[in-house]
């Protein structure tokens, strides 16, 4: 436990943990002040996410490469998963889908682009393992096609389409999870030598002892769930106060909050010229959301949600996911990057953010 | 003739030739039992296609590289052409178009993916001549744009669109055939050294003597035509009995039956680490269907069909062709493959097949 | 001034300058003969564009690399800009947009394809600096996404969409210009060594003295503006006489006329095996139109036009721009070309031209 406290003392980000009790108390006392609760819950989620991510990696580091990789791959986006599950239980399916789509877009454009940009400011040209990037972009490409289809089917025949979209979504969810599992088997077992330099879990932080890590994992997850509830409840109304559209909130705000911890690791890796790590986190998070978190949500909606959720996204979300995947695929194809590569990728993100900000609520 | 009989005896696939007389007799005796006739005609077409493909290659092997390549390129998909012509004469344009689109999608996803997968199970990593793959994917990309346009024009203006779609389709058909001819001129004449290792026609089977091959070619084509008639007549009704949608039948069943022979060659090539051959067959068949078979069908519809056929495909078919081409282009870009590459490509195919299976008949 | 006259005498293209006074007189005398005025104005614009391009390069050559590159990059498509500005002032926004979209498509398909084709007829295989091609195709890809969005927003919600399209267009215009400026900073300053062999401004022509060049630049621009007025006035009616659709005129005729001078340089570079130069001109012109000319027109429409112009293009134009960019990106990825590469790219252009020629006027 000492290690944990020492770490909290040394990492200014973790001082934000103070906001965890604050937001929970504030929620009891002033359940009506949505904007305040929204700001507090964001401030509380960010350090929790960082702690969660550190605990996951500590457990992963202790359990050997194969199991560790598996753990990292399944729990790496635990924050996003817990937030989405909270929204799912509240029946806010529009928010769930927007946050899934937004996380894919944000990770593969903003996080990836910012890594290239920040790294490029310090190093003239950077190189990274493109085999790993190709695996992730291949998985992401598959997921993009899977997310595209239900939306197209529903467009082609709005009446009959609705009836089959649920069956189709369950089928696609299972297929994506199988593809994800095979991808792990490929990169951790049969062809692990190709992914040699990707070096996950070496972020320079000393891992927590296994016992501490497990306890941290359990407790922090509970707190993320509690704070997420406040976040999900307040986000839409707070957004209105700030003059933001619901699409902007779901796509941009939720995705940035949920991914803050990974972004911190990815950006710091890029500044240390360890672009393999950065690209791995950015692309890996994207494909994990698309091939693991989204399918899990669809399947869990049969148990937890008021009614089943499908994989039919708003057409605008589908277009953005498609264009993000295409951009990330084309950009990571060469295995080299400069500051300008990063800028271009981020500008695609800015175009999307700008559009979502201006979009009238009706069309979403 | 002895060579031919010996070959039939040695190749278990060819024992299925027994079903040729069976299906023709059954068609006379029980013209109403669609399901039976469908199953029998499938069982009869597969060995005929294998024989046709072998005879074509034998003629090609004897006539020197340039003429041989030409023959292979024009008669390589004779089975698909004869089936489609039978459907064309019967005025079943929906089936014709579905089988063309299905053959493109099936060859560039299922056949290619399965080659990578089967080869990858035996060999850790496989390499192939990517110049050849790029030529084929370039041609396929051009054809995809050509097939996309009439559908978009018709969508933009349903009334006036219909009037110009026919003119446009004839123009596009001629253009695609010119591009295909130029592609052959390029790969067989001006830049043949780039395609050196692609080695068509060396499948390990001994070629038939030229006389036997020519006679076989003629006779088998007639039988394929006869059996195709039964197949085309029975397929739709049989599909209903099996609970399959017409789109699923046209896209998946017809394409798998028509391509069975090439698939056998391509898969066996992949298992022997001769991926050049496999990729050549898979990508070559796709581009041949798109740039030769489809245009020929459009032009012949003016002579053989009840009314001219255009190149306007069902929007879903256009999306699938576009995504297949994009997938095949991105995947073959590196010139290397593993079992996982193959799995990813096949999964795209499974997504399409699943969707077509669930699709309500109205939307197709 | 002598240099200029000597040059005019030696370059048969410049003899066409005779048509400049002819068309201006004809416009006063016979303002009704649209077809005649159209033909005369085309004949007059082509040599003016060549002169303009030569003068720009002469100034660029004298002012050192950084400023020179900047000049070339901003004034390189001065002809297109002046023509579009004339149409803008006349309120012909459909023509403005068609000419912008047409210039992007024509430069990245016809000009690029013809360079590959002409070069390939003389040289077996040609190589070029693919870093430079990738920069341009990256910029073009960004612009394509930016041009896609307003059209999608307007489709999703025709009523509210119109209201936000203008705000969005201004935002996108500013963003594209920033991206363009950063691209110049990247290629002329921070990473100029990567673009070493691209060698702009060395077309073998001797540069004009700086004084002559500046005077030429000023005078010729005025003449281009005067002739453009006749051109813009006559083009639509002349097109009707020739039986061409307005879309065909805007996309194909205006783009070919406006780009004639660059095409002459690019084609001659390809014939001299200086493909770096050719690809630079073709891809550079495309991205310049998309990231500089189009945004400038949007911003200037607030000052010069009868009402603000947005970036919402006709869906068909968006599809063509997207497919052109994708084609150019995939094709220039390898850094090698043959005659067949060029032919394939040009065929995509022919498909578009054919479709536009046949398209009923209503749908545009």
Features:
364 residues; homotrimer; mainly alpha; two-stranded antiparallel ribbon
How would you portray this structure in words?
The structure is a homotrimer of 364-residue chains. The first copy, chain A, is mostly helical and 364 residues long. Helix content of chain A is 80%, strand content 1%. Chain A has 15 helices and 2 strands. Chain A has a two-stranded antiparallel sheet. In chain A, helix 7 crosses helix 11, helix 7 runs parallel beside helix 12 and helix 7 packs antiparallel against helix 15. About 2% of the residues of chain A have low confidence. Chains A and C meet through helix 14 and helix 15 of A and helix 8 and helix 9 of C.
List the helices and strands and how they pair.
The structure is a homotrimer of 364-residue chains.
Chain A: H1 2-10, H2 12-15, H3 19-29, H4 34-62, H5 65-75, H6 78-89, H7 93-122, E1 126-127, H8 130-156, H9 158-190, H10 210-242, H11 246-258, H12 260-271, H13 275-304, H14 315-332, E2 336-337, H15 339-358
Antiparallel strand pairs in A: 1-2
Helix pairs in contact in A: 3-4, 3-10, 4-5, 4-10, 4-12, 6-7, 6-10, 6-13, 7-11, 7-12, 7-13, 7-14, 7-15, 8-9, 8-13, 8-14, 9-13, 12-13, 14-15
